[in-house]
Amino acid sequence: xxxxxxxxxxxxxxxxxxxxxxxxxxxxxxxxxxxxxxxxxxxxxxxxxxxxxxxxxxxxxxxxxxxxxxxxxxxxxxxxxxxxxxxxxxxxxxxxxxxxxxxxxxxxxxxxxxxxxxxxxxxxxxxxxxxxxxxxxxxxxxxxxxxxxxxxxxxxxxxxxxxxxxxxxxxxxxxxxxxxxxxxxxxxxxxxxxxxxxxxxxxxxxxxxxxxxxxxxxxxxxxxxxxxxxxxxxxxxxxxxxxxxxxxxxxxxxxxxxxxxxxxxxxxxxxxxxxxxxxxxxxxxxxxxxxxxxxxxxxxxxxxxxxxxxxxxxxxxxxxxxxxxxxxxxxxxxxxxxxxxxxxxxxxxxxxxxxxxxxxxxxxxxxxxxxxxxxxxxxxxxxxxxxxx
Length: 389
Hints:
- 15% of the residues lie in helices and 31% in strands.
- By secondary structure, the protein is α+β, with helices and mostly antiparallel strands.
């Protein structure tokens, strides 16, 4: 027995001494175009618009007499703001590819990615709904990815097309719960998404393309709800705008207050409290022609309680002096078919969601010749009452 023990010990030492750690090569993680061609040989790569046109129908294939979308999805016409189309799990491979345009370091994108693809010199964009916290750690800004979509679904949530899975909401305690119970696009489990996704090359944010908007009416005047879907999720730069110090009250601009953003949902910061209802808070910007547009932020963003450019504890009178460009993800959000039928498409159905405050590039009097003129970030400060024990 001792002989075998010594032999095993000697063999183990030899095996360990001969092992040498080898760092994984980039080829194991970052595909070349040749490798992309190899893994997609079982099917085809669709452009993002081809993917939407080929697999997303108006009613979806999840709608029946017994399986309903939430009641807000439709108002008795041919347009559905919520839908689900399941994708075949077998058969030819269904692939899409695109470069990540979002990051969640600023806390303003939660369990979602947007990707862009440049086709014939023009941007196409698409949302990905993923049940993954800190998604930017896995899929950083500027990383190109390819996704095998078989077995997943494509759907619309509030008229926004996205890669998803079917999800049933029966939250009886939600606001307007009766309108929200039913099927809607849900988040793809993290492991499922990672298994379907590969990197192409290494992340390079310099390759991202921004559609420049010099006249916001060129966006807000688009009244075709179906056509607007393909505008959603685009990476944009709106030019020569300033904050007005206002928010949208169902389409009516109202002046922001100087209240405490922990208590006052209309405070003059990027995203004051919604009392944890967590709808996006919109703040109005205006272009040179006087047309309004919304910039959207979450109350959970890291910058939520920073004053709007030009705003401070005294009010919003100086907002008009800070002029420049704002970048982010364009969104067209319509979640109530009844309102569409009554009011059509309004200017505040559109918004740009900034990724963090680096997307806000405003200068005093629009003079960008000196960094000294760049808007300085100021966070709201409040005095906490303290009663000694």
